[in-house]
Amino acid sequence: MARKFLYFVALCIILVIAGAFALALFPNQLTKWASVPSVAFAPVEPLEANAYEDPALWYSRPGIGVSDPARWQPAYAGDRGVLPTPAEPKARFAVFFVHPTSYLSRTSWNAPLENGGDPDAERIARIYLRGMASPFNAASEIWAPRYRQATMGAFLTEAPEGRQAVNAAYADVREAFRFFLSSVDPATPIVLAGHSQGALHLKRLLAEEVKGSPVAARLVAAYVVGWPVSTLHDLPVMGLSACAAPDQTGCVLSWSSFAEPAAPSLVLDAYAATLALDGQAPGTDPMLCTNPLTGTPGGAAPASANLGTLVPEDSMEKGTLQPGLVPARCDKRGLLLIGPPPEMGSYVLPGNNYHVYDLPLFWANTKADVNRRADAWKPAN
After folding, report:
1. Domain-embedded: residue 1
2. Of 125, 160, 197, 211, which is most buried with the most CB atoms under 10 A?
3. How many domains does the chain have?
4. How far apart are CA 24 and CA 205, in angstroms?
């Protein structure tokens, strides 16, 4: 269990609940106290057959219209200068996007779906989709399921309940993905994307549902962002390689963003000790770092190559694109470093961790990247 990887998000909650002084004295104890459910794990019954036929189980899907959060299009702030707008793709493609953790309750190990779900979790999930799924909005179809996500505290405990909660969440994602595949034209190429908890589920989905299946030939790319991907212990089990060129298809992109000076020890320690898809702990083995400004692994690119960072208002519900704001370079540890801390709002995490902003920092480049790969995709002979 990567129990420390989402530790930073929980720390932010504790800053409000307990105060910085108490947190400094008792960080681990307070974080668990505020986040890990105190109730017994209640088995999560499988959803009924064809449950995802119900439009209410989707945040985004064809037919939702203007209320679809993934279809939001931010505007550029002020004078854009000479930077080009990301080209619209010539090809049709469909996107399956898995949102990150938005459920923070201690009253249950998994978020409810019935009766509209948990109001705060639903609101936060829609905000995340506006900022993180919208770079994929040139797609002909975007599908983003509601699912019984594991609560934040499930990632902060070694108790078996945490793993049970994550497995239950994955089962929903898997069923949503199967319905997505049954609903999209079999000739249409697909893009898979997810962030944080969503990326964790996406890794497993690629290994168990895509690898070795006809779906693999339809894959434009998989954007597994905000969760570590081991090049030695995850990629072979996923059956995919890292994207080595900006127009390569059928490959994986992944990054985790830190401003400098970065203090990533908790993330690196968790990555080192957490079992990867092959059942081994990665230790100091390399972590995949795609530079989103170039679409290739490793290397550096200046801020001038950034076509547009989505800078949100503090509510995270609105924002504008600002070109040339943030550079990017991959370091030898596999972290994406973005230079001095940019002003992105109140949700920068301890250690200069820009986890919440992994996709917004590179909004326009991500859009350009997926559009370019969609145009480069060719059906198997």
Report:
1. no
2. 197
3. 1
4. 38
Task: Name the maximum alpha-carbon separation found in the chain.
Answer: 63
Which H/E stretch holds residue 270?
A: helix 265-273
Residue 283: which of 340, 241, 354, 333 has the closest Cα? 333
Residue with tokens 């898995």: 98
Query: Would you say residue 13 lies in a domain?
Result: no
Specify the amino acid at residue 41.
F
- How far lies 379's CA from each of 62, 182, 189, 216, in Å? 23, 18, 8, 11
State the pTM of this model.
0.91
Residue type, 308: G
Query: Residue 219's domain spans which residues?
Result: 36-376
- Work out the pLDDT band at 16, boundaries 50, 70, 90: very low
Query: Is residue 148 assigned to a domain?
Result: yes
> What pLDDT, on a 0 to 100 scale, did the predictor assign at position 256?
97
- pLDDT band at 227; cut points 50, 70, 90: very high
**Residue corresponding to tokens 């779900």:** 117
Q: What does the H/E/C string look like for 234-266?
A: CHHHHCCEECCCCCCCCEEECCCEECCCCCCHH
8-state DSSP, 329: E
Of 79, 146, 141, 100, the closest CA to residue 321 belongs to 79
Residue 84 DSSP class = P
Identify whether 69 is part of a domain.
yes
- Please state, in angstroms and rounded to a whole number, the distance separating the CA atoms of residues 137 and 131: 11
